[in-house]
């Protein structure tokens, strides 16, 4: 019988059993003068099967599948002779997932006269379905796209393998993060292959009357304000081009159709269209928009740019991080192809490749450039990837185009804050940033903080963002404000807190895991880290208000901010599990369950519901590890504070 890990007394008391010499009593029993016995009976789990049972069952299933497959193939063979397939032994997993298939030399001869010519795609598909009796468990999509890369502790990247080990040591628990793609690079890993999902036949747009009705619904929705991609005055032309005769210009019509399909994908998420007789699902619209944009790849127009940005918005809503990244990259290229990176007061000479447009179209393209520019800075600062649109190659100066505020009233993001993000990305996230001394890094952080504060004070008081929001009730959306103004207020507040976090959390790069920081440096690092922690608290406190306002569209807001805001709080609790703010911060993190449950899910797709559930599960896993760290300190198994090394 294998040795038990604990004696009967220690097992019952749930304490560690330490036996220094085999045959001697354990330390606890010896100190308490108790009999150290190993007489308890271990009950065997009746539901637990042995490995041999599982292997035997799997072997029988494999044999059954092989027989069914060979029978299906032989049933289609001509009567003239045996097929070389009948002589071939099948692997244990005849139809594994594409990502696990290994290509090897086939023992079957390649003589064309001997190859079976009767295996049809339908036969193969039917056998594939037969073999896939147990579909793989769906993988989580939450990755560094949502969480970010700016998480360090004394020079250790928290999302690296060494960082995982540091978390495990601090929490005293295994880090159950395998369900989330955060300890690997989401842009460098190989995607799981899947069969093409495009329909065999192109889909036909709804009737023009229904389409116009849905366009009106879209422009009245909050989605059109959250993503100000379409211009009502210009979109009438898009509808006309989408329904014009194919013989006129197929490329122009295809771009317009792609734009309409992408718009329908967004609006059908939250609109009941059964009374209109439509049975199309949002994912069908996404597939058709993707198919059409693939056909016109390289043919840039305003319709294709709008369609690409709308498709990106759909992918963001459903957590398709990799697809959204590729789509957004394409949109940034397209907006420059159309001249959006040039100011509205055009220079006397334009590059020859920049097309000419009327004033209304030029203004809208310039607006789309600013949409791309602002979101590009979010991505760059969050992921430490180089920005796609920079001030070196794009005109982002304060020009006279901003003098008329009425034409920019639908901009939901602040362009000046985006410029500060570009500066922060260049200073803190470029390769040279990893060569700074600790004093240089802190000086740059302080410089950026001064720029950010100067910008904050320049904002009109009714919109001016705050660092500390003490409760959700203290963040109020004035009812007298228009929908656009309230959207701007929300975005400005969240954007400011986002920038605070991503600038100040980088001070945790300072130091060495084996050494204490000097007292003066330790104080500065703590002061800066405290700002990022307070910004995280404020984000969680206002998300409930945001959900009440945005309803279904808050999926994007919660997914964009909650995972990132959870990290500073988690790291601080892990470093100081019994700190004076640890309990309240744990309560704040736990509020993610209430926040996500408040999002109306009646009309959301399964993908969106699963996505928001993943975010909740991720944050609750951080809560579990935080609780575990606190108990480890209480048991005396680790230091109270990980950032202080006691001699």
TrEMBL record:
First-listed, main subcellular location of the protein, grouped into a coarse class: nucleus
Gene Ontology molecular-function annotations: DNA binding; DNA-binding transcription factor activity, RNA polymerase II-specific; zinc ion binding
Subcellular location: Nucleus
Organism for this UniProt entry: Fusarium sarcochroum
Name of the featured protein: Zn(2)-C6 fungal-type domain-containing protein
Keywords for this protein: DNA-binding, Metal-binding, Nucleus, Transcription, Transcription regulation
Listed GO biological process terms: DNA-templated transcription
Domain spans labelled Zn(2)-C6 fungal-type: 6-38
PROSITE patterns linked: ZN2_CY6_FUNGAL_2
GO cellular component terms, A-Z: nucleus
UniProt xrefs under Pfam families: Fungal_trans
CDD domains the UniProt entry points to: fungal_TF_MHR, GAL4
